[in-house]
Amino acid sequence: MTQKARHIEKKDKVWHIGMTEKAWRIGMTEKAWHIEMTEKAWHIWMTEKAWHIEMTQKARHIEMTDKGWHIGMTERAWRIGMTEEAWHIEVTEKAWRIGMTEKAWHIEMTKKASYIKMIRKA
Q: Domain of life of the organism in this record (predicted)?
């Protein structure tokens, strides 16, 4: 091989190595970017999931509290030998007799139930 041919070959090889390294660096950057993007996406998803779980628990807690109060009222009616409907009618009549609207009575009972719960927690 002539010296010129050898020089061209060497130059070509160096260029090829350079390109490979450059391509590898680009590849690594893309891979790193992809990992970073994936982590970011995962973080957003986890945040959303956590938020969703919190919202679900909050909703469940509200539902349970409401349901619990309702069940408590039903059990009370059942214990005193009345159907829930009869108990509700009696309560309405009682509220009417003591000069309150049913809504006002219900609000007062709810407050009382909340107060009892607060005392139990403490």
A: Eukaryota
Burial (CB count <10 Å: 0-12, 13-18, 19+), residue 91: middle
Long-range contacts of 15-23 (CB under 8 A, 24+ apart): none
2 pLDDT higher than 60: yes
Buried b vs exposed e over 47-68: b needs ≥16 C-beta within 10 Å? eeeeeeeeeeeeeeeeeeeeee
Tokens 């660096």 sit at which residue?
25
pTM above 0.90, yes or no: no
Residue range 98-110, pLDDT digits in tens: 666 666 666 777 7
